[in-house]
Amino acid sequence: MKVAVISTKPYDRQFLQAANSEYVYEFTFFEARLTLETAALASGFPAVCAFIHDQLNEETLSAISAEGTRIIALRSAGFNNVDLKAAGKLGLTVVRVPDYSPYAVAEHAVGLILMLNRKLHKAYNRVRDDNFSLNGLLGFDLHGATVGVIGTGKIGQCFCKIMTGFGCRILAYDPYPSDDCIAMGVKYRDFSDVLAASDIVSLHCPLTPQTHYLINEKSLNWLKPGAILINTSRGGLIDTKAVIAAIKSGKVGHLGIDVYEEEENLFFEDWSNSVIQDDDIQLLQSFNNVVITAHQGFFTKEALTNIAQTTLMSLGQFANGKPCEYEIRP
Length: 330
Hints:
This protein has about 325 residues and is an alpha/beta fold. It folds into two domains: about 1-100 and about 300-320, Rossmann fold (3-Layer(aba) Sandwich), CATH 3.40.50; about 100-290, NAD(P)-binding Rossmann-like Domain (Rossmann fold), CATH 3.40.50. About 35% of the residues lie in helices and about 15% in strands. The strands form two sheets. It has a seven-stranded parallel beta sheet with strand order 8-7-6-9-10-11-12, with helices on both faces. Strands 2-1-3-4-5 form a five-stranded parallel beta sheet, with helices on both faces. Helix 7 links the parallel strand 7 (about 170-175) and strand 8 (about 185-190).
């Protein structure tokens, strides 16, 4: 089967080609993102392998469907960039990778917490400049701190387990409480109560119409003053302008994000020789209590191996006329 791999980076080639020895698909790799304007790239390919910033809206899906595409294989767990209703009407099968490595993202969230709390980014730069002063680097013990977890799916559960190991008190909000989390001592509370009681709040929920701007001007007012806010899920969970105002007022003590609501035209590319036109991201980078990473939470060799293997397994199930285990339906 011919497969168009869209939004390709060198590591995508490496891991997909390594996994392909078992299947022998005919890959064609494209660096460009998939949009209506680039839909012609998928012409003649029954399978399209897409990523999180590809615009799989009704117009794009209609265009690629008309040129012979039958299956969309997402190299991600999230699928908020796909119009599933349109895909269903067009007869397109959409599959994803739900369990590539919850540990990777959970561990990255913990890394952001440690960096912000213990000022590791500042300390590293100071020592490189031969400044060995500790002034301004004061943190607090994670042991005994209250951590709020918003969303206790697989990643949220891994995060809870790690923070329990630090000796933290864990509060959580999720419409569907996890028995595993309850067994490890996690206490479920209302969303506002979790924000109000937590020294650290970490977001681990998908981006849906219901969770869009979950962190907004109103909910930020519930936040414990000076709390650390972490987002390794999807940028659209946070209203950026509202959180900037909360940082300025001191309501948010520290912000660590691996995702950003306008990241589509920024992340995964090198803009070091350009003037970035996004004022919000530039302002966030100017704050000394903000750490931004460019959607690398998933970026471990274990995760990339699992993404490649699961994606090709789904394509194999489709090619052989079998039900796709990880199909997403409207």
